[in-house]
Design goal:
- This protein has about 240 residues and is an alpha+beta fold.
- The chain folds into two domains: about 1-35 and about 185-245; about 45-130.
- The protein is built from three helices and twelve strands, in the order E-E-E-E-H-H-H-E-E-E-E-E-E-E-E.
- The protein has helices at about 45-55, 60-85, 95-130; strands at about 5-10, 15-20, 20-25, 30-35, 140-150, 155-165, 175-180, 185, 195, 205-215, 220-230, 235-240.
- The strands form two sheets. Strands 1, 8, 9, 10, 11 and 12 form a six-stranded antiparallel beta sheet that branches. Strands 2-3-4-5-6-7 form a six-stranded antiparallel beta sheet, with no helix packed on it.
- Strand 6 and strand 7 form a beta hairpin.
- Helix 1 (about 45-55) packs across helix 2 (about 60-85), helix 1 (about 45-55) crosses helix 3 and helix 2 (about 60-85) runs antiparallel to helix 3 (about 95-130).
- The protein is flat.
- The relative contact order is 0.16.
Length: about 240
């Protein structure tokens, strides 16, 4: 079992940073916040490339290419599945041809997926960079790194993404807050767990004071909450493990 990661909050301190994530405890309302800054959605290089391609081809031709490569990707996947599912339709003398066909469809899938993602990214930037106030494209951009915040309350667990946009032409600002899906449930805390406090040294004073948050992603993450009844020291323990379906 993986060892717990420990985020420590000395007595009187309710904020800590661990592995790029900011943790904040609100003891009065029993709320725990975890926030992290992300990289901007579009890098300066990708923005310049999107503008150059849009000026060269035009937005509509770029959309058509994105749709074309999405259809080619679907066709190549279907062809590969057909070759895998019905090899008996080909005689033994075509076995080499069948193998080459499978190989070529895999290569085609990779190429079509890349091209679809490339043109789709340009289309997305064309849409996102449009300012609704002044009506111009390629002027709306992020002026601050996006913020992901997870908030654990007694009766709820939420995750939000906040994006900060402004128009470099007219100055219009727009802060977008979107709720993100999160696979979450709670497990009961261990009432009989009493450890020695590292802060004040008092024995049997550390207790688990709220139920465990369990978040299922690629890995299952458990978040446990402890505090010292004597000095007010707080601690969050993180444990990540593979999900067992």
């Amino acid at each position: 079992m993986a060892k717990d990661k420990r985020i420590k909050f000395p007595s009187g301190s309710y904020q800590a940073v661990y592995d790029g994530i900011s943790y904040r405890i609100d003891p009065e309302n029993d709320i725990v916040e975890m926030s992290q800054r992300l990289n901007p959605r579009y890098s300066p290089e990708s923005r310049e490339e999107a503008v150059s391609l849009a000026n060269k081809l035009g937005p509509e031709r770029i959309r058509k290419r994105a749709r074309l490569f999405s259809k080619l990707l679907i066709l190549s996947i279907l062809l590969f599945l057909f070759l895998m599912a019905f090899p008996v339709l080909f005689s033994a003398q075509f076995e080499g041809f069948l193998s080459w066909g499978k190989f070529l469809t895999i290569v085609s899938e990779v190429v079509f997926l890349y091209m679809f993602g490339y043109y789709r990214g340009v289309v997305s930037y064309f849409t996102d960079s449009y300012c609704e106030k002044c009506g111009k494209h390629f002027v709306f951009e992020e002026y601050q790194a996006p913020l992901v915040k997870e908030e654990s309350k007694i009766d709820a667990y939420t995750k939000t993404l906040t994006q900060y946009w402004h128009c470099k032409n007219c100055g219009h600002k727009d802060i977008k807050i979107e709720f993100q899906p999160v696979d979450h449930h709670r497990e009961k805390k261990q009432d009989n767990l009493k450890d020695t406090c590292e802060e004040c040294g008092k024995e049997h004073s550390i207790e688990e004071y709220r139920n465990i948050d369990v978040i299922n992603r690629a890995l299952r993450k458990k978040i446990r909450y402890f505090k010292c009844r004597n000095c007010g020291y707080h601690e969050i323990r993180l444990n990540k493990s593979f999900k067992i379906v």
